[in-house]
Design brief:
Helices cover 0% and strands 54% of the residues. It is mostly beta strands and 168 residues long. The strands form three sheets. Strands 2, 3, 4, 5, 8, 9, 12 and 15 form an eight-stranded antiparallel sheet that branches. Strands 6, 7, 10, 11 and 13 form a five-stranded antiparallel sheet that branches. A two-stranded antiparallel ribbon has the order 1-14. β10 (104-110) and β11 (117-124) form a beta hairpin. Mean pLDDT is 82; it is low at 1-13 and 46-53.
Length: 168
């Protein structure tokens, strides 16, 4: 349709995505959310500094503005890392580009009741990088990623991100 600007308060948005479907095919899990974004993950073959109890998974997300990961459980306290490869434009239209004037915001959440707890937001360039949170207690987590600035309002999955998440 055209170029749109994300709402001014969007940087502080707490994810309110609702799962439409979850499809598990052996080790692969694909979640589709009500905004059209998808998140697919598979276990990674890495063994972290905590040995066999450490966890990791590779993932791919197709989205427009932001996406939410699957939940995962850290059995030890320690460092969580979300590595994001470059944000790609999958629509071919320029509003979906992630440019040097934009940023990728990554927020780690700990599931809690009545509301989830943010462990803070990290900012990465569109070319990718790793966001890291140290000293996180053993618990269940997920992360939310969003691209600041312009987006293509005509295409709900005009961007793709890939990466690896590691946790204790």
């Amino acid at each position: 349709m055209g170029l749109a600007i994300a709402p001014a308060g969007a940087a502080e948005d707490v994810p309110s995505l609702k799962k439409v479907s979850v499809v598990k095919d052996e080790a692969k899990e694909t979640i589709t959310y009500d905004n059209g974004s998808t998140f697919t993950s598979v276990p990674a073959a890495e063994v972290g500094v905590y040995g066999a109890l450490a966890g990791s998974f590779d993932w791919t997300a197709d989205f427009q503005i932001g996406f939410e990961s699957r939940t995962y459980t850290a059995v030890n306290s320690g460092t969580h890392k979300v590595k994001i490869n470059a944000i790609q434009n999958t629509s071919g239209r320029s509003p979906a580009n992630c440019t040097s004037s934009q940023a990728v915001q990554v927020t780690l959440y700990r599931e809690d009741f009545p509301t989830d707890t943010s462990l803070g937001m990290k900012t990465l360039p569109c070319s990718g990088g790793t966001a890291s949170w140290s000293g996180a207690p053993a618990d269940t987590y997920y992360f939310y990623v969003r691209v600041t600035g312009n987006y293509d309002s005509a295409d709900l999955t005009s961007r793709r991100a890939t990466g690896t998440t590691t946790y204790p």
